[in-house]
Write a structure and sequence with these properties.
The complex is a heterodimer of chains A (115) and B (111).
Chain A (H helix, E strand, L loop, with lengths): L4 E3 L2 E4 L5 E6 L6 E7 L6 E7 L2 E5 L7 E4 L6 E5 L8 E8 L9 E2 L3 E5 L1
Parallel strand pairs in A: 2-11
Antiparallel strand pairs in A: 1-3, 3-8, 4-5, 4-9, 5-6, 7-8, 9-10, 9-11
Chain B lengths: L3 E3 L4 E4 L4 E7 L4 E9 L6 E6 L3 E5 L2 E6 L4 E6 L8 E9 L6 E2 L3 E6 L1
Parallel strand pairs in B: 2-11
Antiparallel strand pairs in B: 1-3, 3-8, 4-5, 4-9, 6-7, 7-8, 9-10, 9-11
The chains are: A mainly beta (115), B mainly beta (111).
């Protein structure tokens, strides 16, 4: 069964450094998402991406965050200057197409630890 | 009021029993409803989704939706110790792609 792939599984970064989290969505999916989950808290929406542009973003997704689909397969989340509070699990998800009924499929996540 | 509210846990049931997980949502226009299972340190795993009022069954799992009451539930029959996990309710508003998650309910099935 096709799956969403995320790399790395664990990223340790010094505060203030830039970090890029990578995702390969399922190949025929058109909608892409990033969520995060701080330890012990709920899954929070960050951003959705469709047709090479951001379709929606949350208040968490400030100017320090950006997303990109540099080629036909990868979908990346960049945090420019990391803060301690950015430490969390980051999940990439993808969805096939239009229609609110289709589920999102999640990757295994990247655990980001900011020191 | 939280957008998506789940019954507070933890919930503990004996093996073989029925586990009942509940979720209410505030956006009356919500269209799709999802139940995910999340093991500690792992990603959410889709169990079921439902978008029409009524029941939807898949094996030991039954999702129930009542849009008038803004309520969705998940029943797990013949609960197994391997069902022990946190169950996340997610709601998608009409014409929006993002899902809004509840805090989750932690289920423990005791052998």
């Amino acid at each position: 069964e096709p799956e969403v792939t995320q790399t790395p599984s664990h990223q340790v970064t010094q505060m203030g450094q830039e970090v890029i989290l990578r995702c390969v969505p399922i190949s025929n999916h058109l909608y892409f998402y990033w969520y995060r989950q701080i330890l012990g808290q709920k899954v929070e929406f960050l951003v959705s991406f469709y047709n090479n542009e951001i379709s929606e973003k949350s208040e968490i997704f400030d100017d320090q965050f950006s997303v990109e689909r540099p080629d036909g397969s990868n979908f990346t989340l960049k945090i420019r200057s990391t803060k301690l509070e950015d430490s969390a699990m980051y999940f990439c998800a993808s969805r096939q197409g239009r229609g609110g009924t289709q589920p999102q499929h999640f990757g295994d996540g990247t655990r980001l630890s900011i020191l | 009021q939280k957008e998506v509210e789940q019954n507070s846990g933890p919930l503990s049931v004996p093996e073989g029993a029925i586990a009942s997980l509940n979720c209410t949502y505030s956006d009356r226009g919500s269209q799709s409803f999802f139940w995910y299972r999340q093991y500690s340190g792992k990603s959410p795993e889709l169990i079921m989704f439902i978008y029409s009022n009524g029941d939807k069954e898949d094996g030991r799992f039954t999702a129930q939706l009542n849009k008038a009451s803004q309520y969705v539930s998940l029943l797990i029959r013949d609960s197994q110790p391997s069902d022990s996990a946190t169950y996340l309710c997610a709601v998608r508003p009409t014409n929006a792609g993002k899902s809004t998650f509840g805090d989750g309910t932690t289920l423990t099935v005791k052998p």
